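Problem: given the chain below (925 residues), write out its structure.
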Amino acid sequence: MQSGLERADIAFAVNGAAVSVNVPPLRRLSQVLRDELRLTGTKVGCDAGDCGACTVLVDGDPVCACLMSAASAAGASVTTVEGLANGRLSALQASFLAHGAAQCGICTPALLVAATALLDTTPRPTETEVQDALGGILCRCTGYRKIIAAVMEASSQTASLDFRLPQSGHAIGASPVRLDGVPKVTGAEKFGGDSFPADALAVLVVRSPHYHAGFAFGDLDGWTRKHPGIVGIFTAADIPGKNCFGVIGPFADQPALAEGFARLRGEAVALVAGEREAILDLDLSDFPIRWTELPHVLQPSEAQGEGAALIHPHRPSNLLTSGFVERGDPEAALANAAVTVTGAIDTSYVEHAYIEPEAGHAYMDGDTLVVVACTQAPYMDRDDMAKVLGLPVDKVRIVPTATGGGFGSKLDVSLQPLIGLVALKTGRPAALAYTRNESMMSTTKRHPAEMKATIGADADGHVTGMIFSGDFNTGAYASWGPTVANRVPVHASGPYATPNYRAEGRAIHTHGPISGAFRGFGVPQATIMQETLYDELAGKLGIDRLDFRLRNCLRNGSETVTGQRLESGVGIAECLEALRPHWARALADAGAFNSNHADKKRGVGVASCWYGCGNTSLPNPSTIRVGIAADGTVILHQGAVDIGQGSNTVISQICADALGLPLERFRLKSADTAISPDAGKTSASRQTFVTGKAAEKAGRALREKILRFANVSEKASLQLDGAVIVIREGEATRRIDLASLDMDADGFVFRAEETYDPPTLPLDAKGQGKPYAVYGYGAQIAELEVDLKLGTVKLLKITAAHDVGKAINPLLVEGQIEGGIAQGIGMALMEEYIPGRTENLHDYLIPTIGDVPPIETILVEVPDPEGPFGAKGLGEHVLIPTAPAILNAIRHATGVLVTKVPATPTRIRAGIREKDGIREKEARA
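Solution.
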């Protein structure tokens, strides 16, 4: 929809107030609300009506504001999320908070608006009615189940939700409303595209239309003169520093702007900066650039074929790197095994599909470049920005906004160096929000994998050996390819004792999309291979599939495939045991159904997972600062970016109980490289464990300083009475007037800053060592129904048991499990990113509110002494078992294992036809 040049005065009502705007009549209503009226609670996720994030009410009916012109709204009454309540929360907003239905919050406004319309006509809706009303709005974080519950129970939720926070010593294990929750449900939360300065230059990115191509620019100055409002064009020649970035320093290889040739489709080659209105109407079809298409390879087998051109000259055979783990004699173990199974499975590219495309702005603050953008790793962004733009590190400041989903892809820099370059060169603020197409074309994906494995067991059903190999398509640049290649061999055994083992993971360059971090770093792919073979082994041995896993799972005292002895905290057996009654019931239900149905069959699958929290055998520190101000406020510098998982709340809970003061007295200073110490990146399930441990240490250190100042023992209790600390020990009471004490430069009268780095050891040449200090564990059961004629799958229920060590906040833990399962469902059944074909949320399918079945969560708490209050990480683990459990359930229902994931109806039906054809041949023989 073009904005057009002519303007008109258009009058309508917004949230009960009359407004008039002078805009082109065809301007999108979503743009008018956001840019002209600054009602940024209405989000833009696709500009195509596919995600529903821009939903507003027009005369009481939900509509996608991105599909409605301003002219169409003339005379109408529009309601946005900002108008749902007058100065207080509505019952629905309160219910969302109470149920933990808002995680990252980017889709929350649209869900609230659509649900409000439903509740206006149906105060007590059924689950089906909620699904129908919200079916057009996508959420990537929550898994939808808590959203459904929040809407269904809104009528019983009073708007005066009890916001009281737990008292001293009772934060751990409680589920207070998330500390950053209220802005998420009111529309006040500011994401990457919500606070662009009014005078900011808008930036467009010129990208390669080819997988591999040379290019040369024409008359850039002449083109600029022909387009009023264009301030400048910037290319690699304008980059003042080293035009190379990457998340892992030794492998850094990606230019901010390509020089001379592009290695992938969608690679940035130039920037066009101009006034906002000029950019809105700009057509880049005549941009002066000449392309020369070059040969390309998209598959690892092609990239490693004889005579294949090198994508990076210094990487022979297009091999980025490989990881290796070997223990014992796997060949001998397999040769002597009573039973062996061998298989091969391929997985596809998976798109992160966060509802917030990359967005941010940059400006100069004196001689310091400030970048305000969505990110998962502000300090990593800062360091890469400084290198690319030739600035001292202390002259770059990263201010993270709220991040509307990340899941790994927002660990890599994307637009940050681009807007930084424009701001640096022009001296004006520069703003950029990726279109959905840009985001899906140019950002990282889950690695496609081509895997093979053989596993053997003795006659008693004990695994004796395993050999695994996997080729992972890492695309044109390194990104997190080295992490995937090294993490996979450590985890490919699953959480099982495997005395003889060899695994290799290889990251191979192609001209395909860049593959990076995505919830699990390759472990979900490897687990599909291992867990489907475990089902086959159990079948050959005649052992129940759950019992087979219990027979082989790691326990306290076990050694892993890297030779690491797990002394305590191993909870996989407890997870599997917790599933036992659900397993028996599900098998009985499926058997009863199948005996009475011919065209549809039910299946039950199980799969397990384990996951090392944090970096693999590398330093992984987090630092937390906490202090008490003169007015009695506890200030927590919490630099762990909260992308919806709840770190703002969980880390505060940990620090509060370690300090011994109530959570309600805490105020957060969020991740900002100018004011908060580095808490590391939000990835690898490290924040609760690593940053949480740093918060525990900082809280205890601050407590010790206060007790020492008061000359009392560690048994004393602390209480804040306004600006006075009251210290009690036995019958004695002492009061410290904070206002009478000297303040430091940060306004603290007491402060502590502590760092925690998990104790790990390097892996040797055979992959032996201690790669992680703490592991998390889990197991899931999938129940489903397959239509044998159509190949379609209907999920009936997922039961998930996860060992979290200690559930710091049980409600947030459940939300993470449900959200991870939803992404696992997508990976198993529908998500397949195809470059050039599925670069929007219409052609690329992610689960909707109707695709996620009931989920029963079982929280298992086997404390790990290394974790804060015994806690382990969780975010990555929860996705890992879902896809293999679903694939195993499909095989249980149909007798067919789908070996190309996702298991689409076409692939399931092809497998059934092939199986039936084989049976017919055998019958005739």
